[in-house]
Specification:
about 200 residues; alpha/beta; twelve-stranded parallel beta sheet; Trimer_LpxA-like_sf; Transf_Hexapept/Carb_Anhydrase; Phenylacetic acid degradation protein PaaY
C-alpha cells in the first residue's frame, strides 16, 4: 500500500487489518484490529490524527482528514460507506455514515446512528444515538428501528468477513480474455439491501 511518513510520524496498521494496495495512508494514522480500508481511500494524517478502532471500515474512495490538534475517530464497528468524507469528526461505536455523505468538523455521529447517503452533517452537529440523519444540511428524521440497527450490524460483519477474505486471497492478476468453464462463485456472506430486508 502507499504509506508515507511525515516529520517522522509513520502510520500504524494492525496485522489483522486489511488495507487495499491502492489506498493511501499518510502520517498519524492508526488502524486497529480487524479493520478494512477499501480501494482508493485516502487517510491523511498530516495535520490531525486519524484513528480507526477495532472492526471499523472505510470503503473505496473515502477521504479522511482533519485540522491540527483535532483527531478524526471512527470507533469500534464504525461503517463508512463508499465515497464519504470525514473531517475532524467522531463516528461513535456501531454508527454508519452512508455513501457520499460528508461529516464536518467537530460533528459527532452517535452510537448506532445512521447518516443517510449524500447527507451533509454540518460542523458541530451532534447526531443522537440510534437516530437517522438525512438531507443537505442533515436533519434528524427519527429514531431507528431494531430492524435497521440489526441490518447495519449485519453489513458491518460482512466487511469484517471481507477483511479476512482479502487477507487470505486478494492478489493482483491479469484479466482473463473470456469466461472460463466452471467459473467459481464468490463466498461472500448473504446480505441484502435494507429495502429488500423490509419487504421480507
Amino acid at each position: 500500500m502507499p504509506c508515507y511518513s511525515i516529520e517522522g510520524v509513520i502510520p500504524v496498521v494492525d496485522p489483522s487489518a486489511y488495507v487495499h494496495p491502492t489506498a493511501v495512508l499518510i502520517g498519524d494514522v492508526i488502524v486497529g484490529p480487524d479493520c478494512y480500508i477499501g480501494p482508493a481511500a485516502c487517510l491523511r494524517g498530516d495535520f490531525g490524527r486519524i484513528v480507526m478502532h477495532r472492526g471499523s471500515n472505510v470503503q473505496d474512495t473515502c477521504v479522511v482528514h482533519g485540522f491540527p490538534a483535532h483527531d478524526t475517530v471512527i470507533e469500534e464497528n464504525g461503517h463508512i460507506g463508499h465515497g464519504a468524507v470525514l473531517h475532524s469528526c467522531v463516528v461513535r461505536r456501531d454508527a454508519l455514515v452512508g455513501m457520499n455523505a460528508v461529516v464536518m468538523d467537530d460533528a459527532e455521529v452517535g452510537e448506532e446512528a445512521i447518516v443517510a447517503a449524500s447527507a451533509f452533517v454540518r460542523a458541530g452537529m451532534k447526531v443522537p444515538p440510534r437516530s437517522l440523519a438525512a438531507g443537505v444540511p442533515a436533519k434528524i428524521l427519527r429514531e431507528l428501528s431494531e430492524q435497521e440497527i440489526a441490518w447495519k450490524r449485519e453489513g458491518t460483519h460482512t466487511y469484517q468477513d471481507l477483511t479476512k477474505r482479502c487477507l487470505a486471497s486478494m492478489k493482483e492478476v491479469q484479466p482473463l480474455q473470456k469466461i472460463e468453464a466452471g467459473r467459481p462463485s464468490l463466498k461472500a456472506p448473504a446480505v441484502e439491501p435494507l429495502i429488500a430486508a423490509k419487504r421480507n
